[in-house]
Amino acid sequence: MVTRTNSQQVVFRRPFLLSGFDALQAAGAYTVDTEEELIEALSFPVWKRVATMMQFARDVATEYVPVDPDELHEALMRDGAQPDLSAPSSTSPKSRHRRARDTMKAFQLR
Question: Which of 6, 24, 40, 91 could be bridged to 15 by S-S, CB 3.0 to 4.6 A?
Fold first, then answer.
């Protein structure tokens, strides 16, 4: 079975708690590893998530703790440190363009 691991940094601005933890975890940056395996039965490549782990530095060792990816996402959204990329943008492309044009005009008038 072919597998791959994707790593990403997440940042908590406040202490947080996920199920499976017996205490609050400190605010800060954490590495999250997602392991996926290739499903070869299809005519195109499809990757299935099989595990999501967070890395925690404990004294001189690194501990890998399994986490629920949905629960992690919810905790990050509650914390407010990450933008919710699945949410629609609060401004339309047209209004962003108009704001950029107005900003350029303001600089040209100076």
Answer: 24
- Is the pLDDT higher at 37 or at 108? 37
Task: Collapse the DSSP code of 90 into the 3-class scheme (helix H, G, I; strand E, B; otherwise coil) and give the result.
Answer: coil
In contact, 30 and 54? CB cutoff 8 Å: yes
Q: Are 30 and 55 in contact (CB under 8 A)?
A: yes
Tell me the three-class secondary structure of 21-77, residue by residue. CCCCECCEEEEEEEEEEEECCCCCCEEEEEEEEEEEEECCEEEEEECCHHHHHHHHH
State how far the alpha carbon of 49 is from the alpha carbons of 8, 55, 65, 91, 99, in Å. Answer: 15, 17, 16, 33, 41
d(CA 31, CA 72): 12
Domain ranges of the chain: 3-109
Q: How far apart are CA 76 and CA 27, in angstroms?
A: 11
Q: For residue range 20-41, what is the model confidence (pLDDT) as tens digits?
A: 788 899 999 999 999 999 988 8
d(CA 51, CA 75): 18
